[in-house]
Amino acid sequence: MSGSEWTDPRPMSPHLQVWKWHWTMASSIFHRVSGVGNYLGALLVSAWLIALASGAEAYGAVEAVMLHPVGQILLFFWLVSVLFHLANGLRHLIWDGPKAGFDPKVASMWSIVNFAFGIVAAAIIWSLATNLF
Amino acid sequence: MTTNFKTPTAAARGLGSAKSGTGHHIKQRVSAIALLFLVPWFLYAVIAASRGGFDGATVWLAQPWNAILMILTLGAAFYHMRLGMQVIIEDYIHKAGMKQGLLILNTFVCVGLFTATALSVLKVWISAGL
What we know:
The complex is a heterodimer of chains A (133) and B (130). With 133 residues, chain A is mainly α.
């Protein structure tokens, strides 16, 4: 688009390709990406619960998929996705309710914290789940 | 930024573009508040339940509180998922027919999975006879 022909006075929604990557923009788009990831993970959780009600044989099949290295990697990514979406979603609620944290520096720092929380908390939970139980 | 972008008809009606955006927003936030409490429990629960294989998971899910919280989590999660995916479809899919088809599919998947998983929890709970 040449740009100069644009005559509509309404503000144009910025498109992904013309955005400069920065932390708040990244946390925004990854909130959506992780939401889709959580959606896909919910299909796995559903399979687990339905198999549990179906009997030992069906449960064994689902368990084998989840304990397979590929299943374990998917589960770990799903855990990161859930935890990031949880932390970033809490920030959305704080933005909407108390309306705190809109200062650009605070917002950027908070975005970094949300990403870090997703990865670090997933690693801690994974390590506790595999070692302590 | 004083330009008013509303058409005279839109201003007279006093409603948003689709007349339902505020309701959608509030539903998404309320289910988010529920999930803020339910998801941490759920993560702990799934790890605890899946440690003992089929028998362990059955005994675990047969505990009344676990069954209740699991169904609450499923309800809030599938509701929240449906709302979120609805917005994504509306944002990126503009082809008539395809858009409506995906929106319907999204609803069917979320309602269908909620029904199947909630009944699964009830079956395990009731079968245990606690």
